[in-house]
Every structure is written in structure tokens, then in C-alpha cells.
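Exam revision sheet. Question 4 asks you to relate a sequence to its structure. Input first:
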Amino acid sequence: GFDCGTYTLICCKRNEEKDFSYKKEINAFLEMPLENEFVFNMMKQAGVPLILREDANVAYALGEAAVNMAYTMSGIELKRPMKDGCVNPSEQDAFQIMNVMMHSLLDEIDHDGETLYYSVPANAINEETDADYHEKILEAIFNAYESEKGYKVNAHPINEGLALVYAELADKAFTGIGISC
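Answer key, C-alpha cells:
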């Protein structure tokens, strides 16, 4: 399963012992002008996940490493590829950033066509959101995933509220209200 949240990306998988194993990453990035090669090279040597956009003369530091850098370096703004539960329309490289981070959380899959469920929000009732567009972005990201062995995932969306009902209300015959915030 995969939860693509505004703050955290979480991937959950059953291991051989049928226990759950989780991987997570903070869904954030820093944009750095490439004029500062010292900082870029320092981050690269430290193993910080980076995306290089030479055409725009910028690099993006991703995830928790980006958050840590934002706290230690003044004048650098921490950005988010998502806003209000959906892809952030004001970030032009949100798709590419999310693609890299989400693919990095998908461990080597065991076989081709492995089933993956990912949560998608419903449209907000108090703000203008486009959950359908967001769902198509996530679908494209998962459809583009290919493991080192050439395996792909068979990804299916599930509404966040419905996922909560399945996860929390089994002992009540799945009756109740699932609310995702």
C-alpha cells in the first residue's frame, strides 16, 4: 500500500513473515540555484537525494534531508510538491519531484504485476481542489515505475475515507463513517 500525503509519503509491504514493513519520506524539497556548487557537491557527497535541472540552473534536494537543510541554512525556503492533499499547482516540477520520491520508496518488488493500493483524497468541500487530476498524476507515477529486474506494479487507487473504513471498522462489520483530513 502507498499513502501519498501532503507531509509524508508512506509505503507499506508485507515481508516473508507476513509482518508489515514501512518506509517513509517527508514530502518536501528545497530549490537551490546551481551557482552555489559547493553546497550542491556537499549534499551530493552526503547522499542527499537530488534532482538536477540544468535547463533551469537549479537543483532540488528531497525529503527529510531537505527539511534538515532548511533548518540549518537561513534563507532557504522549504517547499512542498503537494498542497491540501493534492498535487501543488504552483510548483512546476511537482510531478517530477513526487515521481523520484515515490519510486525511491517502492522497494524491489517480488514479481511482475505485484498489486499495490494507493490512497487518493476526495475533493475538499471547503476549498477548490482537483482530486481527479491528482489521482491521474499518482496513476502515471505508479504506471511508470519499473524495478531493476524490469518488474512493474499493478496499482489501484482507493479513496482515503474508504481505506480508513477497511482498516478500522472490521470488528463493526465495516459500518461507520470514514473521514480523512
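Marking note for examiners. The CA atoms of residues 87 and 136 lie 10 Å apart.
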